[in-house]
Amino acid sequence: MTNLLSFSAILNLVGFWDVAIALLVLFIISCLLERFTNKGPMLWPVLGIMPSVFLNVNSMYDWATVALIRAGGTFYFRGMWFGGAHGIITIDPSKLEYMLKTRFNNFPKGQRYRERFHDLLGDGIFNADDQMWKEQRRVATTEMHSSRFVEHSFLSMQVLVHEKLLKLMDDVVNSRNSVIDLQEVLLRFTFDNICTAALGVDPGCLALDFPQIPFAKAFEEATELTLFRFMLPPFVWKPMKRFEMGYEKRLKESVRIVHEFAEKAVTERRNELVRLGGLNDRSDLLSRLMEYTDQNPEGQGTQKRFSNKFLVDFCISFILAGRDTSSVALAWFFWLVQKTPEVENKILKEMNEILGQRRQCSNIKEPAGHDAIFTVEELKNMVYLQAALSESLRLYPAVPIDIKEVVEDDVFPDGTVVKKGGGVLYSMFSMARIESIWGQDCLEFRPERWIKDGVFVSENQFKYPVFNGGPRLCVGKKFAYMQMKMVAAAILLRYEVKVVEGHNVVPKLTTTLYMQNGLLVTLKPRALKSKRLVSDSAYD
Predict the structure, then answer these.
(1) For 37-59, what is the HEC assignment?
(2) What pLDDT score was predicted for residue 356?
(3) Rounded-to-integer distance, Cα 421 and Cα 265, Å
(4) Needs which cofactor (predicted)?
C-alpha cells in the first residue's frame, strides 16, 4: 500500500512535459549511438531504415549505391518494428558466391518473397524453392534446350521481328508523327514473343493500332502492384488484401485476368490433345510440357501428366521472366548506343562485314526485296553486338535488386553474421558502379571490356549476376541473347535511333528497371551502300 502511494506521488510530481523531454533525450541518444556505430544508412528507433528509404525514393538506386560505397560494400538494415524485416544489403561478389552457390540451400527465395508473389505466380519456377523448384528447373532445361524448341522459338521470333516489328516502325517513319515510345514497342514485342513461345498464343500487342490487350495490361499492373507488398509490413498489406482495400483491390482484379487467360490457354490445349491424340504440330513450351516424357537411366520414356495448375503457374513464371527483362534491357541498350556513336559505328561495321561474307556462300542469293534476315550462325558471330548488350545489362540490369532469405543463422567468409529469417539483398545496379569490381572506368559504356583477341569473354557470374548465379543460373540466357541480338541487329541495320531532345530518361522504382518516362525516339532510315541480302534458309 505504501509503495502504491509512493508511485502515485511520483506521478503527481512528474508532469507530461517531463516525460516528453525524457523520451526526446532518449530518442536523440539512441540516434547518436546508431549514427556513430552503424556504417550504413540511419536506422531510426521503431521505424528502422524506412524514413531513409522514403526520403530517397526518387533516387533510390543512386542513394543505395552511395550508401554501399560509404559502408565498404555491405551494411545492415532493419525495417519497421512491427514488420520484422532485417538483414544485410551487399555488393560483395564473394558474399554472392557464398550465398548463391556455396550455401545455396540456406539462402532460398524464402517465405517472405513467395508469400508476396503467390497470388500472381503460384508455385511457378520463379516463385519456388526446394524440390518443387528442382523439378521445374529440370523440366524447363530439358525442353528449352531441345533442338525442337530452339528452332521454334527462333523462327517465331524471326517472323515477329520482320512481319510485325519492322512493319510497325516503317509505319511510324511514314506517318506525320514520327516520335515513338521505343520502350512501349519493345514491351509489346517481347510480350507477343514470349506468349507465342510459352503458350503458342499471339496476344497481338504489336498490331499497328497499338490495341489495349487486357491480359498484357493486367500482367503489367499485377507485377507493379505486387511491389507494394515489399514496401509495407505484413500487418498493413494483409488486412488490405483481406478487405480488398486500395491497391490490393486492383491487384486482385489484375491477377484474376492473368490467370483466366492462362487457364483458358491450358484448358483449350488439353482439349486439343484429347481430341487429336497428340500435339505433334505444336512446338511451344505448353504443348511440349503436355507431352513431356521422363527418360529413365535405360533411355526408356514414361509419359508424365502435369496438372493444369502446374502448367498455368509454370507458364506465367516463364512469361514474367521473358517479357520484362529483354524489353527493358533493349530499351537501355538503344539509349546508350545512340549516346555513343563510336559504339554504334562498330556494331554497324560488324553487321555489314557479316552481310558481305554472304556473297562467298553458295546458298545465298540477292533478292529483289530489301530485307536482310540474319541466320542463327550470323547472329552468334556478332561478337561486338553481344559485348554491347552485355555492357548495357551491366550498367542497367533488367532486375536491379534481388533478395534471398536466411534459413538458419550463418556467417559469411568475411565474418558478417546473418540471422535466421533475415534477408540478404544484393544490388546489381550498384555493383556496376564500384571501381573495386569493374575498375576506374566502371561508369563508362565500354563494350571492349568483354572482348579479348576478338572473342567474347564471359565474366564471373558472381561479379556479373545479371542472369543470376549458381544452381539458379537463368535457363533462358541463350534465348534472351538471341532475342536481343535479333531485335538490335534488325533495327540498327535499318534505322538511326535518336532520343527526342529534352526527354528525361531515369529508372523507375519497380521490380524491373523500366524507364520512368518511357523512351521517346525518332527513327531515320539508313541509306545502305549495297543491296540487302537474305538467306534461302533463315535457320541454317
Answers:
(1) HCCCCCCECCCECHHHHHHCHHH
(2) 87
(3) 38
(4) heme
Q: 3-class SS at 363?
A: coil
Q: What is the pLDDT of residue 532?
A: 41
Run of H or E including 242: helix 234-242
Q: Do 507 and 513 form a contact (C-beta atoms < 8 A)?
A: yes
User: Which residue pairs from 128-136 have beta carbons closer than 8 angstroms and sit at least 24 positions apart in sequence?
Assistant: 136/314
For 33, phi then psi, to 5°, come to -60, -40
Q: At 295, which helix (H) or strand (E)?
A: strand 293-295
CA distance linking residue 265 with residue 286, whole number of Å: 9
Q: Tens digits of per-residue pLDDT, 172-213?
A: 988 867 899 999 999 999 999 999 999 999 999 999 888 999
pTM of the model: 0.89
CA distances (Å), origin 515, targets 175, 194, 472 = 25, 21, 27
3-state secondary structure of 143: helix
Average pLDDT over residues 480-498: 96
* Contact in structure between 214 and 350 (CB atoms under 8 Å): no
Give the closest residue to 416 by CA, choosing from 72, 56, 30.
72
Decide if 483 contacts 384 (C-beta within 8 A).
no
User: Could you tell me the CA-to-CA distances from 188 to 107, 196, 303 in Å, in that order?
Assistant: 34, 12, 35
| Strand-pair category, 410-411 with 417-418 | antiparallel
Q: Residue 286, Cβ neighbours under 10 Å: how many? A: 24
3-state SS class at 382: coil
Q: How far apart are CA 33 and CA 201, in angstroms?
A: 59
From the centroid of its chain, how far is CA 67? 23
* Angle, alpha carbons 312-190-512 (nearest 5°): 80
How many residues make up the chain in this entry? 540
Helix (H) or strand (E) holding 307: none
Q: Give residues with Cβ within 8 angstroms of 87, minimum separation 6.
A: 76, 77, 406, 418, 419, 422, 423, 424, 425
Average pLDDT of the residues in 218-239: 90
DSSP 472-540: G--TTHHHHHHHHHHHHHHHHHHEEEEEPTT----B-SSSS--BTT--EEEEEE---SS---EESSS--
Count of other CB atoms within 10 angstroms of residue 257: 17
How does DSSP classify residue 163?
A: I
78, three cell numbers? 532493419
pLDDT at 369 over 50: no
DSSP β-ladder status, 534-535 and 364-365: antiparallel
Exposure letters 491-503 (e unless 16+ CB within 10 A, then b): bbbbbbbebeeee
Residues 284/152, Cβ–Cβ less than 8 Å: yes
Task: Give Cα separations from 510 to 175, 228, 515 (angstroms).
Answer: 33, 9, 10
- Does residue 451 contact residue 384 with C-beta atoms inside 8 Å? yes
Say whether 455 sits in a helix, a strand or coil. Answer: strand
